[in-house]
Design brief:
With 119 residues, the chain is mainly β. The chain has two helices and six strands. This is Peptidyl-prolyl cis-trans isomerase.
Length: 119
C-alpha cells in the first residue's frame, strides 16, 4: 500500500470514536495487549492538515497498543494484518481537552492506520 491521503472531513466532529475499515486484512488479529507494527497518517479533522506520518519518516513503528492514545487502544483491536482502518478520535480519546498541554489538545483527529504486524 502507499501513503493514504486524508481530506478535511465534512460536517460536525463526532462525539465518539468512529472506526471505518478501508481495507479488511486477512492476517493475525490485533488484541488490546498486542504489540503492533503500523504505518499511519494523522490529520486534523477540521482542517485536513497533516500533523504526523510514519510514511514521511520512511519507517513503520512498532509499539505496545497499551501505550497509545485511547482512540487507538479502542480502535485497533479486532483489526487484522494487511488491513487499513480510519479512526476519527474526539479530543477525549486523543490528546485531551483544550489546554491539556499537548499541541493537539482539544482537536478531533483522523488517523489512517495500516496494520503490518502483530506480536
Amino acid at each position: 500500500m502507499s501513503k493514504p491521503q486524508i481530506d478535511a472531513q465534512a460536517g460536525p466532529a463526532p462525539e465518539g470514536l468512529v472506526v471505518a475499515d478501508l481495507v479488511v486484512g486477512d492476517g493475525a488479529e490485533a488484541t488490546a495487549d498486542s504489540v503492533v507494527d503500523v504505518h499511519y497518517v494523522g490529520v486534523d479533522f477540521e482542517t485536513g492538515e497533516e500533523f504526523d506520518s510514519s510514511w514521511d519518516r520512511g519507517d513503520s513503528i512498532t509499539f505496545p497498543l497499551s501505550r497509545l492514545i485511547a482512540g487507538w487502544q479502542q480502535g485497533i483491536p479486532g483489526m487484522r494484518v494487511g488491513g487499513r482502518r480510519q479512526l476519527t478520535c474526539p479530543p477525549e480519546l486523543a490528546y485531551g481537552p483544550a489546554g491539556a498541554g499537548h499541541f493537539l489538545s482539544g482537536r478531533t483527529l483522523v488517523f489512517v492506520i495500516d496494520l503490518l504486524g502483530v506480536e
